[in-house]
Design brief:
The protein has 223 residues and is α+β, with helices and mostly antiparallel strands. The protein is 38% helix and 16% strand. It is built from 7 helices and 6 strands. The strands form 2 sheets. It has a 3-stranded mixed beta sheet. A 3-stranded antiparallel beta sheet has the order 2-3-5. Strand 2 and strand 3 form a beta hairpin. Helix 6 packs antiparallel against helix 7. The protein starts with a helix and ends in a 23-residue tail after the last helix. The C terminus is likely disordered. Bound molecules: iron/sulfur cluster (2 copies). The site of one iron/sulfur cluster has 13 residues, from helix 3.
Length: 223
């Protein structure tokens, strides 16, 4: 029937309006900013950079691989690689971002940067009160403004952060086991080489040298 959808929508609105006088669940709006609706765990606004430990700069997980910069559809991520290296979460020396800016006036909150990051270094924030009068400087966030601790990540996305922690711990354990096995193999190889050298001993000839008598020349009488 023509207009059936409109009638259904109006009926739903009327039901919520009347129901809001008797049940809070029927209240679909809140008196913002005095009141705030709860933010859902899956809510996403703009990206942030995760760091581990107390020092945001040392703890940034980002290794400036620039995959997110390349994959970002509106090209609003700007990264400059460092000249030196710092250990990553498994202790491997890595390049880090000397500069990492995101222009949130351009970002479209697609989360592609999060999906492509191999280091669990960039995640979506749910902070939305970001209005500013400074159109340029105010909306271009640098790495310090983007850096948020892993504890913060746990606060806003507890389920996802716990899964990431478990995955990183597993990868770290695997890397440590591999390094340990390699060290043990190297030590065993070196011990075997030392044992081989010791058993061989010095190179001495066992038989005494025997003098060969000279051959008789032609015409000379044989003894
Ligand atoms: S959320 Fe999308 S648009 Fe925003 S920085 Fe990430 S990839 Fe770019
Ligand atoms: S956030 Fe991730 S994908 Fe982007 S540069 Fe850093 S490590 Fe690479």
């Amino acid at each position: 029937m023509l207009g059936e959808g409109i009638l259904k929508g109006l009926a739903e609105t009327a039901k919520n309006f009347a129901g809001s006088y008797v049940s809070k669940d029927r209240l679909t709006t809140v008196q913002y900013p005095e009141e705030r609706a709860p933010v859902f765990e899956a809510a996403r606004v703009f990206p942030f950079l995760v760091y581990d430990g107390p020092d945001w700069e040392k703890g940034l997980r980002c290794v400036a691989c620039q995959i997110c910069e390349k994959e970002c559809p509106p090209k609003c991520i700007y990264i400059e690689k460092s000249k030196d290296k710092k250990p990553d979460y498994v202790g491997k020396p890595q390049i880090y971002p000397a500069k990492f800016d995101i222009d949130i006036s351009v970002c479209m909150s697609c989360q592609i940067c999060v999906e492509v990051c191999p280091f669990e270094a960039i995640k979506m924030n749910n902070e939305f009160e970001l209005a500013t009068e400074d159109r340029f400087g105010g909306l271009l966030l640098d790495r310090h403004q983007l850096a948020k601790s892993n504890e913060y990540y746990h606060q806003i996305h507890p389920t996802e952060a716990a899964e990431v922690d478990a995955r990183l711990a597993e990868e770290k354990a695997k890397a440590e086991a591999k390094a340990k096995a390699a060290a043990e193999a190297a030590a065993a190889k070196s011990a075997a080489a030392s044992a081989g050298t010791a058993s061989a001993g010095p190179a001495v000839s066992a038989k005494p040298a025997v003098a060969t008598p000279p051959k008789p020349t032609e015409g000379e009488p044989k003894a």
